[in-house]
Amino acid sequence: MKKLIATILAIVMCLSLVACGGPSGEQSQEPNQSSGQEGGETIKIGVLYPLSGSTATAGNSALWAVEWITDYINNELGGIQSMDGAKIELVVGDSKGDSQVGLTEFERMVNVENVSVMFGFYNTAVTNTLSQYCIANQVPAIATNAVGDEAFSQPNDYVFHANGCNATNTLFSNQRTEWMREVIQPMKKFAYVYDSADYGRESYETALANMEENGYEEIVGIPIEAGSADFSSQILQLKNDPEIEWVQPSMNMSDAILFVRQMKEYDVALPIFGNGGGFLQADFIEQAGDAADYVFSTSMWFPSMWETAWDTDFAQTVMDAYYEEFGYDFDESASCAWLGFWCVWDALERAGSADREAIAQAMAETDISGEHYATLLSGSKTVKFEDREGAAGVMVYNQNFDTPVPWACIRDGEYRVVWPEELASQEYEFTWPIPSWDER
Question: pLDDT exceeding 90 applies to what percent of the chain?
Answer without folding.
Answer: 56
